[in-house]
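Ticket #4471: structure export looks truncated?
Reporter: QA, pipeline team
Priority: medium

Steps to reproduce: submit the single chain below to the structure queue and open the exported record.
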Amino acid sequence: MQTKLKNSGGRIANVIIIPLVTLVFLSVVGIFFLMHWSARISDESAEQSQLQLISGALQLVSDDLARQQSGVATWDAAFHITNAPNLDQEWVFDNMTHWLYANHGFTKSAVVGKDYAVKALFAHDHNNGWLTPDLLSRLTPAIAKVRARYIISFRKLPSGLFSYEPSQWNQRYSIYETGVVSVKGEPHLFSVAAIARQIQSVTPLRTPPTVVVSLAPLRGEKMSEIMHMTRLDGFILAQKQTDRDGIGQLKLRGPTGGPVGVIAWQVDQPGTQMLNRINPFLGMAAFMITAVVIAVAIFTRHMTRRLSKSEAQAVHTSRHDALSGLPNRAHFHRLLTDMLQDSNSRGMETAVVYIDLDHFKDINDTLGHSAGDMVIVAVAKRLTHVLSDNGIVARISGDEFAMVIPNSKSDEWLEYILDQIQDEISQPIKIGARELHASLSIGAAVAPRDGIDPDELLRKADIALYDAKANGRNRRSFFEANMEHHVQSKDKLSRELRMALKNDELSLAYQPQSDTAAQRIVSVEALARWTKEDGTVVSPAQFIPVAEETGLINELGLWVLNKACAKAHDWPDVVMSVNVSPNQFKHPRFVEKVMAILATNNLAPQRLEIEVTESVFAGRNDTVLKSLRRLKNLGIKVALDDFGSGYSSLSYLRRFPFDTLKVDRDFLSDMDGNPEAEAIIVSIIQLGKALGMTIVAEGIETIEQIRFLQAHGCHRMQGYFISQPLNEADLAQFLEDFKKEHGGDFGREFAFKMRAAEV
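Actual output as written to the record:
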């Protein structure tokens, strides 16, 4: 039975293998011949293309010679002198033959008369015997063509006279013939041109022209020009043709059709090159056909073993990160669950640690993702090296890692381990020739102190990690109960803020801004306010950062902008100022939304002022500047708020023409007789004026501050001394009272009073 199965298996193998081997063999042979045939066709095509390229380059060089020669050929003076009975040899030498040599490199020139008589000769080596009768006879066909074209270019007039009219577009146009001729066995390029008038002339007879013949050696500069044009290598100028593989040849023939020489070059053979690359693979294919028979014979015996190995590898791949080789998130969760059960049964503490690489995105953005991958691999190796053998390291996501540190003896011991981790990671990471310095933010939760459920521990470690990142990065945090309370409070506040926006429960307060002389209120700044239904007032310092972090700032900012623009009609004499968050500029259609709000509320753009801080430029400079310029082009005023509190103010004052510069309130609060603070304020005022900006001082709280600002020409003031932020009704009353009480110049009497108002 076993023998029957073996024979049956052999017959099945023969039925499959023999046709397969035959088919593959025939396919390889067919491909081999097809590739050789294609290579030969490709080589021939490449050689023909290169031949045409060289021929074209040779013709371009020849035409260029003719254009150079036309400077003396199409010239009234040359026409009259060369056709005179007595040729002025000295003039011809100075202005024609030697001039062509000195300016264009024609080493030989001759003037041939109407009867083919040589009237003047020139050679740079003073050997005037170069124009032999044989050479002249070889040049005669070219001279004859030029003479014929010159004669037929005359136009017969009704009077019977003949008119010669040069080309309208180029007075230096010449009738010429170019080619190649051998002079004493050396190929030369020649140009024959008719010596003609520059202007239209009328003559009773059409007579053959005197021609100028100029030659330049092909070898040397002209050959270099052809090589440069064609970008081909291995140029050789030879007298005879030699047949060699890989050598292309352009046969040069003179005007009479006789051979002059050969331009040879190293032919690019793409087909042969391709064949040389493929031949080894074809040989390998033939070898593989033989190997297939042997491989199939042992395939069955090893099938079970290979399937088992593949299954184990698939399981490993499904549980581990492909880049770092560490356990992935799902496998880490299983390992953590098992380790917690073991630690709980033995009464040991286990630390769950979340790790995040600081500013990892900067590495990907500046050096590329391949460098980022190398950093991930290096960090994974170092984490594994520091951790004990019974610990676990896993890669959770892009730049996040997780660790389990069993048998945690104390917080001090755990801090020592985490210090070792940070010290190890802080060592330079070598990426090619560059050294990178990485840092970690670490959050840790300890079981059973912070819980025994894996998901709960992971969540608390993540909260601790967030705390470490929020407090400056490159540090560690252990989970504390107040962290969770903070997270929950922030989550609750974000949900309540979302509902408040949805139900239109927010309101606006407006803080007036006066000119320095207090003659009028020029602007009001719209400020978001939130009072819950139960009367609880939520400070902007609480809900604005939450809105920034959760993305609600876009919706909140547009709500404030729309509300402020709608109310601006109630106070037609003042500009409405609205703060815009840096995150709002990240929205691709922010400018369009501003335009839509202005259109909906029928508000002129000149009535709106947008306030931005220096932080708006961080990371998106070009995008932000483009949006700001679009807003400014619409007529909207743009103010730089809190000037001097950042690090790049002067740079952006230069790059973007702000309308308004608002001096940060910290400078005024520090003033109070402080000469350094006063000097800074004066410098800011002078800088803003020099750049043509309106200067606004924020945080005015004392009459002394007003006196100081008036003395140094500050344009506007804003602060509690003028007025606190007011609601709509109080603002209307404030504006009315201001006009009645302070329509004059309060700057002399300083009769300002603190304005009490709702916040």
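Status: closed, not a bug. The export was complete when the record was re-opened. Leaving a note from the reviewer for reference: The longest strand covers residues 521-531.
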